[in-house]
Amino acid sequence: MTEPRQADAGQADAPDGRPLYDVRDIMAVLPHRPPFLLVDRVETLEPWRRIRAFKNVTINEPFFQGHFPGLPVMPGVLIVEAMAQASSLLLTLSARDHRAAAPADLKVGDLAGRVGFFAACDGVKFRRQVVPGDRLDLEAWFLRLGSRIWKVAGRATVDGRRAAEAEMTAAY
């Protein structure tokens, strides 16, 4: 997985100390709703390049009732879904709030009202279990920007240790 080039400066918390984007902001742009909303907050956004967000994993998550009783482990497919949601936030927040910074050959207006769907997921690797009490840190960066097809790399970590990684393709 190719690491993204570091931007000069990413946006961090708003000047008033609020998170850059909280769960209300996230719900304004993603169609997902609890219990399937898997991003709680966006910490940094480098428009059109990279995003850092997180999900607080609690024992109250409905999937822990069956995965697994007595040994609660977040399903890997939901970790990948959390990375995909962070990736979608990278695209939609960049398009909504940083339209002028979009690459010149990208038709940002074509994104309005469209929903992205998984087209492929490659190189998925799971490195450690994610359990209640963990903070799942999510990072995603663009590998390829297109008018309808987007390729993104994602990484999920807990306490700085990799939990999962993948390259994801979405069709919009």
Give a structural overview.
This protein has a six-stranded antiparallel sheet, with helices on one face. It has 172 residues and is of the alpha+beta class. About 3% of the residues have low confidence. A hairpin with a 3-residue loop joins strand 1 and strand 2. The chain has two helices and six strands. The chain has a single domain, classed as Thiol Ester Dehydrase, Chain A (Roll), CATH 3.10.129.10.
Going by CATH, the homologous superfamily would be Hotdog Thioesterase
**Overall average residue pLDDT:** 90
**What is the fold-level CATH name, i.e. the topology?**
Thiol Ester Dehydrase, Chain A
Quickly name the level 1 CATH class. Answer: Alpha Beta
Instruction: Please give the alpha-carbon distance between the first and last residues.
Output: 23 Å
Domain module tally: 1
Order of helices and strands: HEEHEEEE
Structural Rg? 16 Å
> Helix content range of the residues, please?
10-25%
Number of helices: 2
Shape verdict: globular
Structural class: alpha+beta
Brief digest:
By secondary structure, the chain is of the alpha+beta class. The chain has helices at 23-29, 76-97; strands spanning 41-46, 50-56, 117-126, 135-144, 149-158, 161-171.
What is the secondary structure topology, with strand pairs?
Blueprint: H1 23-29, E1 41-46, E2 50-56, H2 76-97, E3 117-126, E4 135-144, E5 149-158, E6 161-171
Antiparallel strand pairs: 1-2, 2-4, 3-6, 4-5, 5-6
